[in-house]
Amino acid sequence: MEITRDGGCACGEVRYRLTSDPLFTHCCHCLNCQRQTGSAFVINLLIESDRVELLAGEPQAVEVPRDDGSTQTIYRCPVCQVAVYSEYSRPEVRFVRSGTLDEPGSVEPDVHIFTRSKLGWVTLPSSAPAFEVYYDTKSLWPPSRLERLAAVMSPAG
Ligand SMILES: [Zn+2]
Ligand SMILES: [Zn+2]
Q1: pTM of whole model > 0.85?
Q2: Is the dihedral of CA 37, 41, 47, 48 positive or negative?
């Protein structure tokens, strides 16, 4: 039995349900995430887009410039503008912002990334691996999660 998690924006217009556990959970300390959140880091639940079920509202896609010249699509509530999830290069996987979950404490980061720009006063736990920049998905994700990723990245037929 998979665990489901609900979340939403601040005003209640957008409500969503994650129909299973995430693939993996990132705590990202990069400068883009710091700027986008106005905070020290962001916690993203990586999950297949078809496992993010909209219960109410329609998040609005906003193209946000990144330091490398690319853009990132951030989905925001059309009313209160809270960002609920984002997309990077592939639309098959959503990056759900864990602070928008009804129970943000129900997930912990599986990995800390871009620690080269981590703020000095943030102390990382020893319970999760940390990387200066990024990591090798194949060596860190459990096999069952890699299978799930492969299933959405190369659908049959
Ligand atoms: Zn809202
Ligand atoms: Zn980041």
Answers
A1: yes
A2: positive
Which whole-number Å values give the CA distances from 119 to 15, 19, 66, in the listed order?
Answer: 32, 33, 19
Q: How far is the CA of 13 from the centre of ligand 1 (A)?
A: 5
- Cα–Cα distance for residue pair 46/57, rounded to 1 Å: 21
Provide the token pair at 117: 């720009």
Identify the nearest ligand to the CA of 13 by its number. Answer: 1
For residue 43, the model assigns a pLDDT of 98
**DSSP one-letter string for 20-36:** S--SEEEEE--HHHHHH
Low-confidence stretches of the chain (pLDDT beneath 70): 1, 155-157
Query: What confidence score (pLDDT) does residue 2 get?
Result: 78
Using CA atoms, how far residue 78 sits from 17, 29, 36, 84, 139, in Å, is 18, 27, 17, 11, 38
Ligand lying closest to the C-alpha of residue 14: 1
Structure confidence at residue 94 (pLDDT) = 97
State the distance from the centre of ligand 1 to the C-alpha of 8, rounded, in angstroms.
8
Q: Quick check: helix, strand or coil at residue 153? A: helix
CA 49–ligand 1 middle distance (angstroms): 20
Which ligand has its closest atom nearest to the C-alpha of 56?
A: 1
| Tokens coding 106 | 């129900």
| Beta bridge partner(s), residue 94 | 47
Give the pLDDT score at 83.
98
